[in-house]
Specification:
Layout: E1 3-8, H1 14-26, E2 30-35, E3 41-43, E4 49-51, E5 54-55, E6 66-69, H2 75-80, H3 83-95, E7 99-102, H4 106-111, E8 119-120, E9 134-135, E10 140-143, E11 146-149, H5 155-167, H6 169-178
Parallel strand pairs: 1-2, 1-6, 2-5, 6-7, 7-11, 8-9
Antiparallel strand pairs: 3-4, 10-11
Helix pairs in contact: 1-5, 5-6
Length: about 180
């Protein structure tokens, strides 16, 4: 069974983060919402507070199969400023473990050199920060162990791409049908 951690920094984009959490839980993927602050409650870009499952200091990264980075501002900057999280992003990418980012958050992967030769997308205006990537204009794109999404309006497609990566196209398609998602 897969274990996914979705990381929340103050100012995260609520829809991007919570859509992924919701979709993963619907298909019984163990998913923890993790605060990169010292607080269990993290407030999003639109002042919506959400109570986390864990603080980053409580995460055993050896037991985590996938990292998810939601976007939003200043949420993306706050994720990137978290040294422990950035160390783990580097470890995951180097080990070939999946790292997923949506909206402004793919810029983190670009800044760290993790998009070299990969197809990727980000929120409009952040494409120039996808250093080394082949920028594609799709709602969500999977290239090897990296999944990126364009923005809030693409959160379901991003979440479904994660489900497909972890459980296959059949489970992804069944979930899309169950939630009445039309492509």
């Amino acid at each position: 069974m897969s274990k996914v951690c979705v990381f929340f920094g103050t100012g995260y984009e609520e829809i991007e983060a919570l859509t992924v959490v919701d979709l993963l839980k619907r298909v019984k993927i163990e998913t923890d919402m993790v605060s990169v602050t010292e607080e269990k409650t993290v407030v999003g870009t639109h002042a919506i507070p959400v109570v986390m499952d864990k603080l980053i200091s409580e995460v055993n990264f050896d037991e985590v199969d996938m990292i998810v980075l939601p976007g939003g501002m200043p949420g993306t900057r706050n994720l990137e400023a978290c040294e422990l999280l950035m160390e783990q992003v580097d470890v995951f990418v180097k080990a070939g473990k999946p790292v997923c980012a949506i909206c402004a958050a793919p810029s983190i992967l670009g800044h760290r050199g993790h998009l070299q030769g990969k197809k990727a997308i980000a929120y409009p205006g952040f494409e120039d920060q996808l250093t080394g990537a082949e920028v594609v204009y799709e709602p969500a794109v999977t290239d090897g162990n990296i999944i990126t999404g364009r923005g809030m309006g693409c959160a379901i497609e991003f979440g479904l791409a994660i489900v497909e990566y972890l459980q296959g196209k059949e489970v992804r398609d069944a979930l899309a049908e169950k939630i009445i998602f039309k492509q």
